[in-house]
Design brief:
With 196 residues, this protein is mainly alpha-helical. The chain contains eight helices and no strands. It has one domain. It is elongated and about 65 Å long. The N and C termini lie far apart (65 Å).
Length: 196
């Protein structure tokens, strides 16, 4: 009886630590992806030649890799988690990672076929949707954390959610009103408007 209790306490303590690690990786990954996306947009303004293997895209997909590691950590402990809310957060991170990696592969193929990087493409919308899901999932995990140091990252997590949601909103507005709205933003996102 004592051995089973000791094992149970050990697993629960690891589950908490792995869940916190998963949340931290997802938050850091989304921050890196958002910063890489801003950097990529700035390179459009500077008219830097666009291929898939630019340092900006490597930065974006490094963040996506961190989110994928977060999803792997979440999968390891999801069965041992007792809170349904935390399970939902873990599933959101997992779905976000799948969308990001699938969208990244599609983005690579898009670059191979067309050469340019359109702002509003199915691959980008997939990556951005995964970004929003993983940011929301990490916030859910973070909000249930008992680690006071990790809870101090809540404002960063909230900013990730707001930034990724506004990024998707901006792209969907461009998609709906492509011709009218591309004229004022043509200088910044010229290749995105050309693809639409």
């Amino acid at each position: 009886m004592y051995l089973s209790n000791r094992f149970s306490v050990s697993v629960l303590s690891r589950t908490r630590k792995i869940t916190e690690l998963s949340s931290l990786l997802a938050i850091c990954g989304t921050v890196i992806m958002l910063l890489g996306g801003v950097w990529d947009s700035a390179s459009h303004e500077m008219r830097i030649p666009e291929t898939f293997w630019t340092i900006q895209h490597v930065t974006i997909y490094s963040g996506a890799s961190m989110v994928a590691c977060s999803a792997i950590a979440a999968v390891l402990v999801i069965k041992h988690c007792k809170h349904n809310t935390m399970k939902k957060g873990m599933v959101m991170i997992l779905l976000g990672a799948i969308l990001q990696l699938g969208g990244g592969y599609a983005d690579y193929n898009f670059h191979e076929v067309y050469g340019i990087d359109g702002l509003v493409t199915p691959s980008h919308l997939s990556v951005e949707s995964g970004l929003l899901l993983s940011a929301a999932g990490s916030f859910i995990l973070l909000s249930k954390s008992q680690n006071h140091i990790l809870l101090k990252m809540a404002p960063i997590s909230i900013m990730c959610i707001l930034s990724s949601a506004s990024w998707i909103g901006f792209n969907l507005v461009l998609l709906v009103g492509s011709v009218v709205l591309c004229v004022p933003v043509f200088q910044l996102f010229y290749s995105g408007c050309a693809v639409m």
